[in-house]
Amino acid sequence: MRVLVLHSHPVEESYGKALYLQTLESLRKGGHEVDACDLYAENFDPVLSRHDRLAYHDYPGNTELVKPYVERLKRAEGLVLVTPVWNFGFPAILKGYFDRVWLPGVSFELVDGKVESRLRHIRKLAAVLTYGATPLRAFVAGNPPKKIVKRVLRAQINPLRPVTFLAHYDMNNCTPETRARFLAKVKTSMERF
Where is the Flavodoxin-like fold domain (predicted)? Predict the structure, then answer.
């Protein structure tokens, strides 16, 4: 299976980068063809410009500025997000990726006023997230990233398929042991993806 892995952490020597590299290695070990998309390393421009917004519904012209990313998404059979959670949301670069790449005609189409997915070719979805907050604080805040992955993205891809959701909470108080345990969990889960 061809798996698109989206990474959105700007620091090279970080735990987030270690999670990304482990995800890539484990997916390959599991027999998958991996398309590693490190948004910062690729200098992805997350800004939805005025021009982009005006052309938003004009498929296929709306894809011209992000065509390589659109093609990668269209070829994907699996999707894995590896990202930190900042202020109970995704980093701006990942949010911008969704705004600029998941366009009408690419990820969805409006048919008689109803949204129809164009991502049914993606058969599996996973997320590897790190939170500064505890599970309780994330719950109290409504845990928007978890809802986006398990509800919104899942509905666009296939609402009947399970989602692999891995989260290391309370990074503000993590230890080498908690990080090692989570890294091992990511290794095992991605090998079985």
Answer: 1-135
pLDDT tens for the chain, 193 residues long, are 999 999 999 888 899 999 999 999 999 999 999 999 999 999 999 999 999 999 999 999 999 999 999 999 999 999 999 999 999 999 999 999 999 999 999 999 989 989 899 999 999 999 999 999 999 999 999 999 999 999 999 999 999 989 999 999 999 999 999 999 999 999 999 999 9
Cβ atoms of 106 and 71 within 8 Å: the answer is: no
Q: Quick one: tokens of 35?
A: 């398309």
Domains and CATH numbers, the chain: 2-192 (3.40.50.360)
